Amino acid sequence: MNPLIWLVEDEASIADTLIYTLESEGFEVCWFSLGQPALNALAQSQPELAILDVGLPDINGFDLCRQLLARRPDLPVLFLTARSEEIDRIIGLEIGADDYVAKPFSPREVCARVRTILRRLQKQRTIQSQDCALALGDFTLDEAKAYVSYCQQPLALTRYEFLLLKTLLLAPGRVFSRQQLMDTVWAGAEESLERTVDTHIKTLRAKLRSINTEQSPIQTHRGLGYSLGLKA
Fold it and tell me: What predicted TM-score, i.e. pTM, was given to this entire model?
């Protein structure tokens, strides 16, 4: 079956062009002109990727992304927007989007970015399917299930939180610069900002602290980056 792509875009002319290009490239497309119907459809449909317009009439695209990822944390998201300011790119990436395209854009560029995202995810899944659960100090990492526990309690992680924590766990004590983490965790993303790393580190620390307030496994190395220490 062809990969199912959701397109949430209120401008019919833009939607028609994207639908034609994506279907010509072998994708199946489901179009929503509003955000709420997409949320309602998530219980019955499992898209491979969602393309979201930021400026929807009924719900802000960023809010729509948050709600979709709350229900499907592994759902890849590509933003379309007429706004190209850095703050908008930051917000989109920090809430879990995979990429960001500013209007006006080439429909073939959007299609190429969709293929890049899906190819990257398939590669990650192939690698994870070959791995087994590892006990790493107070952590247990199961890459095949995209699962991490801390102090014997499961962590509810977004996809990028999982990939970031996995990267740190597999190289305990190593100091990763922000750029190294961007290249590893957000590899292939056309739009990426180092502040994204800081935000995800902050949310990871909060989730770890909610389980154990006496330990701080993730260490900041001022001017250098981050590392994770494992309890002996």
Answer: 0.62
State the Cα–Cα distance between residues 135 and 33, nearest whole angstrom.
Answer: 46
- Whole-angstrom distance, CA of residue 26 vs CA of residue 111: 10
What torsion, rounded to 10 degrees, do the Cα atoms 202, 203, 208, 213 define?
60
Structure token pair of residue 66: 């948050």
Taking the C-alpha atoms of residue 4 and residue 129, their distance in angstroms, rounded to an integer, is 23
What is the number of other CB atoms lying within 10 angstroms of the CB of residue 43? 8
Judge contact between 93 and 181, C-beta under 8 A.
no
29 Cβ partners below 8 Å, 6+ apart? 4, 5, 6, 7, 18, 19, 22, 23
Q: What is the pLDDT of residues 157-201, one digit of tens each?
A: 888 899 999 999 999 889 999 888 988 888 765 555 668 899 899
